[in-house]
Amino acid sequence: MKPHVARKRFGQNFLVSPGVVAKIVEAIHPRTDDIVVEIGPGLGALTEPLLARLDHLHVVEIDRDLIARLRERFPPARLAIHEGDALQFDFSGLGPGLRVVGNLPYNISTPLLFHLAAFADRVRDMHFMLQREVVERMVAAPGGSEYGRLSVMLQYRFEMERLFLVPPGAFNPAPKVESAVVRMTPRSQAALTAVDEDKLGEVVKAAFSQRRKMLRNTLRERLREEDWAELGIDPTRRAEELAVGDYLRIANRLAGLRPPPGSPKEA
Ligand code: SAM
């Protein structure tokens, strides 16, 4: 078989460092009967060591040439290949308790993370390799320029841990940027206090659309002065200064819910 030529449009940077592969698999710590799906198995750098520890593995891959190679290498009883776009894939059919892993195509990482967040209630955990800069935004605390829509919307739904950095030389072709591995663990349903996630998404998007402006201005059409007063949030603050819990309280207020008596103003 001819060597595969990496396709830029599919964000193909293949892992070639056995040390990094081993570290990722160790972090995932798969048990034989875990239900695992790998997004973008590519040439199988992670697929093979995962299958060595699992009875069965699902993969979602878009590149037909790579799918043909995977079919030759792994029997269908062990590897279920879902051919297609992970952005359109219905992950709910694979869970509950699903473990999602992947060295993700960097060109679609943000929409893919938002797509996956919708299946959080079927997921046990997720381990991803991403651009370091994206991981910094995912785990960022309020107050800095890295804190934004991605941070709030993911931290609301998941516990997030940056595990380790990976240098460009671990891939072929080598990307221009550093990468990092992140672990995302869904928060329990009981910990989720936003009743209207669409509302939360709208507010966060509006607030960060002009992140340097005062919230009084960016959310002018949604909140009046008395709303800010009752929420106990200073409307002269900027989007990046509010905690995830503040956004939840704003969204809940817009959804017509009042905080229960005695609940803290800041979360
Ligand atoms: N897992 C392999 C590794 O670590 O060497 C390959 C990682 S490579 C960064 C990303 C993989 O995702 C490629 O195999 C690519 O074809 C696949 N891919 C790209 N876009 C995709 C999409 N929308 N849906 C599913 N797979 C996709």
What's this entry about, in short?
It contains 10 helices and 9 strands. By secondary structure, the protein is α/β, with parallel strands linked by helices.
Describe this structure as you would to a colleague.
The chain is α/β, with parallel strands linked by helices. The chain has 2 domains: about 10-185, Vaccinia Virus protein VP39 (Rossmann fold, 3-Layer(aba) Sandwich), CATH 3.40.50.150; about 195-260, Orthogonal Bundle (Helicase, Ruva Protein, domain 3), CATH 1.10.8. Helix content is about 35%, strand content about 20%. The protein has 10 helices and 9 strands. The chain has helices at about 20-30, 45-55, 65-75, 110-115, 130-140, 150-155, 195-210, 215-220, 225-230, 245-255; strands at about 15, 35-40, 55-60, 80-85, 100-105, 125-130, 160-165, 170, 180-185. The strands form 2 sheets. A 7-stranded mixed sheet has the order 4-3-2-5-6-9-7. A two-stranded antiparallel sheet has the order 1-8. Helix 4 links the parallel strand 5 (about 100-105) and strand 6. The longest helix is centred in the C-terminal third of the chain and has 13 residues, at about 195-210. The N and C termini lie far apart (about 55 Å). S-adenosylmethionine binds next to strand 1 and strand 3.
